[in-house]
Amino acid sequence: MAKILMVVSAADRLTLADGTAHPTGFWAEEVAVSHRVLRDAGLDVDIASPGGARPTVDPISLDERGGVDEGAAAEFRSYLDSITDELAKPLALADVKEADYDGVYIPGGHGPMEDLAHDADLGRLLTASDRNGKIVAALCHGPAGLLSASGASGESRDTGAGFAFAGRRLTVFSDEEERQGLGNSVPYFVESRLRDLGAIVETGPAWASKVVTDGNLITGQNPQSSAETARQVITALKEHAVA
C-alpha cells in the first residue's frame, strides 16, 4: 500500500503586510476532500505538522464568507470530524523520515505562508523526496511550502539560487485570486514569489479547477482543484508502481 504524508500548517494566523494578525489555518475543503480521495483509493495517509501541533481550520472555509455553502460546509465538517483523532495528534515534521513515504501532499489555506514556507524540516523532506523521484504535491496556498526547499521564505528577496523547484512547471493560488480576497494586505503573493525563484507558473481562470503535473511534481491552483489534485497523485503512484 502506498503511503502519503499530508503536511498541514499549524498556523492559526497570518501576519499581514502591516504587521497585524489575520485569523487563518488550513482550508477545510482541501484537507477533507484530498484526504478522502486518497483514502478511498486505498492509500495510507499520515498527517504531520510543524512541531506536531494540532492544525486549526480556517473558520471562513466552513461558511459563506469563504464562498462555501451550508451543504458543502456540513460535508467538510463531517469528514474532518471523522479524522479528528489524526488531526489532534499529527506527527512532528522533525520526526518524519522521507524513506517511510511514497510522497508528500501539502494542502493550503493561508497557514502555509506563515509557517511551512520557512520550515527547515519540510525543506529537507521535500528536497529528499524530489531527489528520489517521489511524489511532491501541493494545493492552493500549499505551494508556499515549496519555498522551504531553499530556505527562501516569502519575505526574502533571493535570486532563487538553490531553489529545488526552479525551472519546474506548477500552479498555485493565483495573484488574481489573492487580489479578490485579502489583496495587497498579504505579506507576499505566492504566485509571484515562486516566479521570482524560477518556477514556471501556469494558472487558469480564477476559481476553476486546474492541476499541473511535471513529472513527480503535482500542483493544484485552488480549493476547486482539491479532488483532481488528489486523483492525479493516485494516477502518478499507479504509473510509478507499473514502471
From TrEMBL:
Coiled coil: none annotated. Residues 29-235 form the DJ-1/PfpI domain. Keywords: Glutamine amidotransferase, Lyase, Stress response. InterPro entries: Class_I_gatase-like, DJ-1/PfpI, Prot/Nucl_acid_deglycase. CDD domains: GATase1_Hsp31_like. It holds the Pfam family DJ-1_PfpI. The keyword Lyase applies. Belongs to the peptidase C56 family. HSP31-like subfamily. This is Type 1 glutamine amidotransferase domain-containing protein.
